[in-house]
Automatic annotation (TrEMBL):
Zn(2+) binds at H197, H199, E204, H246. It is an enzyme of class 5 (isomerase). NCBIfam families: PRK00924.1. Its cofactor is Zn(2+). Belongs to the KduI family. It comes from the Bacteria. Catalyzes the isomerization of 5-dehydro-4-deoxy-D-glucuronate to 3-deoxy-D-glycero-2,5-hexodiulosonate. It holds the Pfam family KduI. It catalyses: 5-dehydro-4-deoxy-D-glucuronate = 3-deoxy-D-glycero-2,5-hexodiulosonate. This is 4-deoxy-L-threo-5-hexosulose-uronate ketol-isomerase. Binds 1 zinc ion per subunit. Its EC number is 5.3.1.17. GO terms for molecular function: 4-deoxy-L-threo-5-hexosulose-uronate ketol-isomerase activity. The lineage of its organism: Bacteria, Pseudomonadati, Bacteroidota, Cytophagia, Cytophagales. The gene is kduI.
């Protein structure tokens, strides 16, 4: 069986400055996340996060160990967070069924051997996931948007009015190191995570969705004094190293999922960068 997860290596910020646009896209952009009846992903050396998608169409998809795990089963030494970006579906964990609605999240802790993702009976199933190494087991738990910690930031005047849904974060449930949430841009707003920031003690991955066919998002990355842009479409993700900013501006409003792994789980642990300081 072909390994469904590829590997991406870490990059030094000084090397990044010399990358061409195709090289940046090859090393950081994840374009084909959803393949019928498969689990796909990228194992990044940035805090060893796995970023991927699960797309059951006409039969269930089972979470199995991949080559990078060097483990008997996927969650032997890992935890996983899943956010449903498609139709309502079901996930079974050690035989327990979890109904997962659109934009709802499920956290599954270390040590769970049997995880099965089922096709939806009412539409296309698209499950986005992040998985991080874990040294302890935390309880499996579903989180709805009503149970999330919700923060509204920005303003229409600054084109960054947005709602941040902190779904799988330390203030909502116990995890080992993984943190995930979802930010929804209000109509008329296009900027996410602006003013921008970096956080040296954790990496981040962004997944963009709710982008119509004729629109796109310009994702900005790099050190604050020398940034680059990657143009992204619906259902694409991007890896953000700890030294990089991670902001985006779309040609219309959209939604994105952020996921983090690393040393610190404090959401506010970041180094802010003013828009006037960006280069």
């Amino acid at each position: 069986m072909t390994n469904p997860v590829s590997t991406r290596y870490s990059s030094h910020p000084e090397d990044f400055k010399r990358y061409t646009t195709p090289e940046i896209r090859e090393k950081f952009l994840i374009e084909d996340l959803f393949k019928a009846n498969e689990l796909t992903g990228v194992y990044t050396m940035e805090d060893r996060l796995i970023v991927g998608g699960i797309h059951p169409v006409d039969h269930p998809v089972t979470l199995v160990a991949v080559e990078q795990n060097k483990a008997e089963y996927f969650l032997e030494r890992r935890e996983i967070g899943i956010i449903n970006v498609g139709a309502p579906t079901q996930i079974s964990v050690e035989g327990e069924i979890f109904d997962l609605g659109h934009k709802e999240a499920l956290y599954i802790g270390k040590g769970n051997k049997e995880v099965v993702f089922h096709p939806s009976s009412s539409g296309a199933t698209y499950l986005y996931y992040n998985s991080a190494p874990a040294h302890k087991s935390c309880p499996t738990k579903k989180i709805t948007t009503a149970e999330a910690e919700v923060v509204t930031l920005g303003s229409l005047e600054n084109s960054n009015h947005r709602t941040i849904n902190k779904l799988l974060v330390a203030s909502v449930l116990e995890t080992c190191q993984l943190q995930m949430g979802m930010t929804e841009l209000k109509p008329g707003s296009v900027w996410n995570t602006m003013p921008s920031h970096t956080h040296d003690r954790r990496m981040e991955a962004y997944f963009y969705f709710d982008i119509s066919e004729n629109n796109a998002v310009a994702h900005f990355m790099g050190q604050p004094d020398e940034t680059r842009v990657v143009w992204m479409k619906n259902h694409q993700a991007i890896i953000s190293p700890p030294w990089s900013i991670h902001s985006g501006a779309g040609t219309s409003n959209y939604t994105f999922i952020w996921g983090m792994a690393g040393e610190n789980m404090d959401y506010g642990d970041m180094d802010a960068v003013k828009p006037t300081e960006l280069r």
